[in-house]
Amino acid sequence: MPLLELKDLTLAYGRIEAVRGVSLTVEEGELVTLIGANGAGKTTTMRAISGIRPVSRGSVWFDGKDITRMKAHERVLAGIVQAPEGRGVFPGMTVVENLEMGAYARKFASKAEHDETVDRVYELFPRLKERRTQVGGTLSGGEQQMVAIGRALMARPRLLLLDEPSMGLAPLVIQQIFRIVSEINESGTTVLLVEQNAQQALSRSHRAYILETGEVIKSGNGKELLADPAVKQAYLGVA
Amino acid sequence: MTTSTSGSASLDTVETPNIGIGDRFRLWWDALARPAQWGIGVPFIVLIALLPVIRPPVLTTVGTDFGSVLAQFGMYALLAIGLNVVVGQTGLLDLGYVGFYAIGAYTVGLITSPDSPWNLTDDWLSRDWAWLFAVPIAIGITAVSGLILGSPTLRLRGDYLAIVTLGFGEIVRLLADNLTTLTGGGRGLSQIAYPVVGESAKNPNGVFSAGNTHSPLNSGTWWFWLSIVLIIITLVLVGNLERSRVGRAWVAIREDEDAAEIMGVPTFKFKLWAFVIGASIGGLSGALYAGQVQFVVPTTFNVINSMLFLCAVVLGGQGNKLGVILGAFIIVYLPNFFLGRTSLLGFQINGNDIANYKYLFFGLALVVLMIFRPQGLIPARQKLLAYGRQVYVAARDAYRALTARTEVSADDAKGGAR
Model pTM? Predict the structure, then answer.
């Protein structure tokens, strides 16, 4: 049984269908990437999974249960946590307060567990520890992305949704973020990643789906897709 | 977008809080020990409470009774605290807040005025206790009206919510104006009950009666004292809420509603809570008003008053309870200060005209404020939002260390922050 399954998912903004009949699965422990150009429906798909966008048709299944109608904040309790596109850091809260907001819904059983999780986040992102008392709005783009991911980790997700973590970041920072994403996945968290940066994303994921104008046009092993001539041409800018 | 700053540069950005007067005061205050806070706070409140007794010559008003002005300030301060929960804490723009004020006042009126068909004071309810009996009902009914307004409208955001609430404020006033059999229409409801306490030969109807004109301890002064007590109780309750999980949810919603929702905050529920709490505080203020004036008419609850309340919140500093109280003071006091005044600092002025143009002046003041100090006179703290005293103390120490140009390593300075 896959951890996450989308069955024939369709989402519409007014009369325009942004996502048309997308079906995909994410197995426990996998790192799966959704790649596609602007407007392909990646973020919309993500929003359907995290529950902040209503589904027109089809269904979302998590851990064997139909969660299509479940409210977004209840999905956090179920274990689906998103680091939103455009980072969505609380601008007036400090780094620490942002991280604590991540643990808002899923309270820690003990202080020790809390400290352990915080330490783990600081271990992944040492810079966040340096910037603990700085407010979110004054952080650099890369740091905000770190906060967004760290905050999501504070909820101890079973499925971590990352929406374009590389958006607007410098190449060096992108590499750093992707390395950390791999690390998070290797330590046991299932990750569904939405990306435009196909090279980085595909080389690190187990499997990938390619979205075009709201439909899955190709799927498969990340490395295989990376070698696929059509993918190369369309997404990697290689003739 | 660089993330590679040198160690010293990051120390500067982390450890030099961009500190304003508000933050400075807050750091100083939070670093004080509890007894010291009491030692300063209590005499300060007593001093404020004694204002209408002392009637300091520079402060006192000439056109209207100073005690009544302060009583009105007390009610506006309550309104500002309530509106601040909605606008300042949760970030929901409510332009119809006057509606809750009206519902609170009219509830007391309907229960206790002889003009009302629902008057209970003819029957079993003694007029001595009728006001006290009506206040909790007024609070309850405004809370329910907040729920009724909030449930459908809080699915809207930003400008849309503002417009719907604006409509709500008008609807309440129009109902009061047109449900003639119930509310007396434009004639209003008179002889509303007030608390009858402290009867004496001088004040046969008690100190809260409008008939008590024995300055300085006239009815205005007594209502001011009553409102101070209610303000303190409200501040304690709201303050505790703000420091709780509810308050954290409010701030998260204000800062980024979608992000709050995907962090597991049930945003709709907490927005509704903010609305209901804000509404009930507005209702309490309305009940005070009805008791003091003993008379309600629809024109008192014009939508322009909503703007005035909002002006108090924005002027004082959204999200800061003390700030909005200061805002309420300015809104109430300044027009009354000019009322009836013919000279100021040796200049001939027409104070009544100045008071009449208060909307113009407050409008200008808001424009100027938005340019120079958009966060309000006493802004909400921008940092260290919910992290308790020890963080303030640590931040203050770090700040002192920096200003003293002492070499402080980032770790030492923040050692106490965890």
Answer: 0.85
